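Batch job 17 of 40 flagged for manual review because the log was empty.
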Amino acid sequence: MHDTLAPAFPRIRVRGTARERGVQYGERARPQVHSARDGYERSFAEQGLSWPEAVAFARRHLPAVTTAYPELVEEMAGIAEGAGLPFEDIFTINCRTEILWWAQTDGPAPADAAHGPAEAPAGRGPGECTSFALAPHRTADGVTLVAQNWDWLVHGVDSVVVLEVEREDGPNFVTLVEAGLLAKTTLNAHGVGIALNTLISSRDDGSPGIPFHVLIRALADCRNVHDAVGILAEHRRASSGNYLVGAAGGAILDIECLPGGPEGVLPVVAENGVLTHTNHFLSALPAGRGHDLAVRAMPDSYVRLGRIRDLVSGPGPEPVTLDALDAALRDHTDAPSSICCHPDERSAPASRWTTVMSVVMDLEQRALHLSEGNPCATPRLRVDYADLLRDPTDPTVPVRTRPQYVAQA
C-alpha cells in the first residue's frame, strides 16, 4: 500500500442541520453536481429517456421518501439550493439506479412517463462493483475490512467527491460519492462500513418505493450490522440491490434485496470470516419473486465473483495482507470488464464504464486505503479518519472539538 499520494477527489466537509449540510455540500461541490446531472441526462438518453421523462419517473418515488425519511428530502433540497439546480434534478439523480435499470427489465412502464424505455436498445447495462469483507481472523493486521471496486459510467469519474459529514443528529460519516447523491461507499463513527453492488431482477419494474441511494444514506445511521437488516426491511424498496455491511469488532453480513417488503430481504452469512459479492444474486429468489437479470444486464459478474473469491480467500488459512488485497483489486482477468474495470470500446460512449475508485476500509482504525481511479494505475492513499469518526458511544472518548471547515480550491 502507498501512503504518500496527493488526493485527486475533492474533500468536502459539512456540518449543521440536514438542510444546512445539504446547502454546504451543493455549494462546495457545485461543478461536480452539475457534471453528474449532465452525465445522467446523456446516459438516460442512451436508454431512450429524455430528462423530463426521467424526472417524471423519479417523481413516483418521492411520496415514499417524504413519508419515511423527511430529513433526507430536506438534505436533497439543500443540495439543490447550494448547487443552483431544481430539487427535482437532485432527486432524479438519486433515483439513477431505478431509472437505468427500469430500461433493462421486462416490467410495465409507469403510467406517468411519456412513453417509457420501450424504444431503448436492450442488452448490457453499466457494470457496478466487486466487493468483499473480511473478519479479523482473516486479516494480517487482525482488523475488520470492508472493500470494493466501484465500477460505474465513465462520466462518474468527474463527479466523485469525498464527503465528510459532522452531525448532531446521528453519527459522523465519510462517504465516497457522486456529487449530488446522498451517499455511496460509507464508513461511520460507530465503525460500520458499507459497500454496495447493483442487482437487477425482473421485479425492477418502476414500482414506487425508497430508492437505492436513499437507503444507502439511511444505512449511514447504523450502530451495528443488524441495524442494517432492520432498515432495509422497514420500508418498501424501489429496486434490487446488495448491501455488504461490516462493523468494528468483526461482524460482517451481506444483504441482498429485491424490490418490495421484508419478504425480499435475503441475508447471506459469511463463510469462515469471508464475504464476496459482485452483481448477481447468490440467494435463490423466493417463488413468485421474479428472476435475476444479471445474465443479460451484467454478464461479467460471474467471472469477477470467481476471481475475487480465489484472490481474497486464498488457497490456505493464512491471514491476508493489505498488499495482497491491493493486488486482488487490480486483477484484469477477463478484461476489460474485470475486477479492475476499463471502458469497453464496443459500448456507446455514454454507456461505457470503468473503475471509478477502489477502497479498503479498516473499520477498527477508521481508515480508508483509497485509489482514486483504476487501482492498476493509481497508488493507494491511506486516509485516517480516527478523529472525525470517533465512536460517540464509547465512554473513553473525549468530547471532540469540531474543526471549522476550510473550503478547498
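Reviewer: the log was empty due to a logging misconfiguration, but the result itself is present. The chain has twelve helices and 14 strands. Unflagging and moving on to job 18.
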